[in-house]
Design brief:
Blueprint lengths: L35 H15 L3 H19 L8 H4 L7 H18 L4 H20 L8 H23 L6 H9 L6 H15 L1 H9 L19 H20 L2 H8 L15 H17 L3 H18 L9 H21 L8 H18 L4 H14 L21 H16 L1 H10 L4 E3 H8 L3 H14 L1 E3 L5 E3 L3 E6 L2 E6 L6 H21 L4
Antiparallel strand pairs: 1-5, 2-3, 4-5
Helix pairs in contact: 1-2, 4-5, 5-8, 6-10, 8-10, 10-11, 10-12, 11-12, 12-13, 12-14, 13-14, 14-15, 14-16, 16-17, 19-20
């Protein structure tokens, strides 16, 4: 039977298994028992990896692994790597890949112990060391390589959250934390990601592409000349991983700097080849810009990705990541609502996205414009719902009494964000007056706002400052929908006018007309 047509679900499981061990008669988990379906799965996966058959690897990774997990390992881990190694020639690299999947399944289905968290860190260290310093001659699907980086950062985040809850830690857990103090160390995590970026030379590869050389993006990172895509694609996705880690730490400028080699404004980058990567990249990119007052960039990119998800999410309903896609979708709508409340540039938002946004947050966005206590509570609510799970990367204090500090980083970021919102309160009044005039004298505007002229100058300077931001490459970018300049004592207002987009409107009307014609055709007249 050809490997391609083999259905791993049909292989005998626990009940029929005739392996080297007897199937366990109780419901307990035996890490050394390998059902026949798992032997077949690892054997075929190993062969496909050796043959660089990316299509079959992807089918087994995305399909068979998920089906076997659902059918046989819903509440237990997979068999241990020691138990399956005999069926894959004790291949060191394959065993590292298998353990990476083993731990990922454990995190997704069960609750890992502290020892398992540490063991997973050791496995990532070994795996990345092989990729960085060994000769890895294989091709893996982009989905798997993205999942490696994504899970690596997730487990780091999860460990920091776990470690920060010191209050109920047992003496044994505290002893382990002290003994393995380098496990999931923030410098170790950042160093591995940075090393993958540098060793892969991905930045130079992307630079060459701008000059018309190379085909990394055109081939979605795959090598069709018999080489390996593993280091290059891991290096590429590690730039997204670095952005995510720095966002978790609250260092948004450095995060955006790490992502700079990837041109987000251009569609078709390798990061879009995996939906999870596409969403994670734009989510963290948009959030970092929101926190750095790059509201226009946030609005533009959130609108694009939300429109994309709106169109394609129906095709991912059977994907194991479907729930995560929907959650990130809802969070990005909340972040878009925050961005538009602070920078009302609705013209940047696609009409389908704007319709969805008004259904979800229209009423709240109206209330957020008042800048009263209720408005601040809404800003707090949306930020808390949509922000990343911030972490404190430093080692805990083991002094008694032990306290939880897992919320400290989040509270700090929320405080900084709300402080920025309160500073925007003054600007809403200035903006509304400026929209009414093309020119107005300083004295007249000061009297309208009931302040003296020196105070008005200070407010106008604040408006200029808060509606402009500095990009990662040092350019000053404007977020203002209404801008101005002062000549002597006259304020000259410049309102940005966007080109009207008629195409979307006519397309929607055409679709509505076709639906009506279809409905009319169904009607039968007696």
């Amino acid at each position: 039977m050809a490997a391609a047509s083999y259905d791993y679900d049909d292989a005998p499981g626990y009940e029929e298994g005739v392996g080297s061990r007897t199937a366990p008669t109780d419901l307990g988990y035996d890490p050394n028992f390998v059902p026949d379906s798992v032997k077949t799965f690892v054997g075929h996966l190993y062969r496909h990896i050796r043959e660089k058959n990316v299509y079959e690897i992807h089918q087994m990774y995305e399909g068979s692994f998920q089906k076997l997990s659902e059918r046989m390992f819903k509440e237990t881990p997979w068999p241990s790597v020691d138990a399956v190694s005999a069926y894959v020639d004790n291949d060191h690299v394959f065993c590292l890949l298998y353990r990476e999947m083993w731990f990922r399944h454990l995190y997704a289905r069960l609750s890992p112990t502290l020892k398992q968290r540490i063991d997973s860190w050791d496995n990532y260290c070994s795996l990345f060391q092989v990729v960085l310093h060994g000769v890895v001659n294989m091709q893996l699907p982009n989905q798997w390589l993205w999942d490696m980086v994504d899970e690596f950062v997730y487990q780091f985040q999860s460990f920091c959250q776990y470690r920060a809850k010191m209050k109920n830690k047992t003496d044994q857990e505290i002893a382990l934390l002290k003994q393995f103090d380098q496990a999931w160390n923030v410098y170790g995590v950042l160093n591995f990601l940075q090393a993958l970026v540098e060793k892969s030379m991905i930045i130079q590869i992307l630079e060459q592409e701008k000059e018309g050389l190379g085909d990394f993006t055109a081939n979605d990172g795959y090598s069709y000349s018999g080489g390996s895509n593993v280091l290059k694609v891991l290096g590429y996705f590690s730039m997204v991983g670095l952005l995510r880690v720095h966002c978790l730490l609250g260092d948004y400028h450095t995060g955006l700097k790490c992502l700079q080699p990837i041109d987000i404004s251009q569609s078709g980058g390798v990061y879009t080849s995996v939906l999870g990567s596409h969403i994670a990249t734009v989510y963290h990119y948009g959030f970092a810009n929101l926190m750095l007052r790059g509201y226009v960039e946030s609005i533009r990119e959130f609108s694009k990705i939300l429109l994309y998800i709106f169109k394609v999410k129906q095709y991912h309903q059977k994907s194991p990541q479907y729930e995560q896609i929907l959650k990130k979708n809802e969070q990005m709508y909340a972040l878009l609502a925050l961005s538009l409340s602070l920078c009302p540039q609705v013209k940047l938002v696609a009409e389908d996205v704007n319709t969805q946004l008004r259904e979800k947050y229209g009423e709240k966005m109206m209330r957020m414009q008042r800048y009263d206590e209720e408005a601040y509570a809404l800003y707090d609510e949306l930020f808390s719902y949509a922000c990343p799970k911030f972490i404190t990367p430093s080692a805990p204090s083991f002094d008694e009494p032990l306290v939880n500090y897992n919320q400290d980083a989040y509270r700090l970021q929320l405080k900084l964000f709300l402080y920025e919102v309160k500073q925007q309160q003054l600007l809403s009044g200035v903006r509304s007056y400026l929209k009414l005039y093309s020119t107005i004298s300083m004295g007249k505007l000061a009297s309208y706002m009931e302040v003296d002229e020196p105070t008005l100058r200070s407010i106008l300077m604040t408006y200029k400052h808060k509606t402009h931001a500095v990009s990662v490459d040092g350019k000053i970018i404007s977020n203002a929908d209404v801008d101005f300049y002062i000549d002597d004592d006259m304020i000259h207002v410049v309102e940005t006018k966007s080109a009207k987009r008629y195409g979307d409107y006519f397309m929607r009307q055409i679709v509505k007309l076709e639906e009506m014609i279809h409905e009319v055709d169904k009607v039968r007249f007696d």
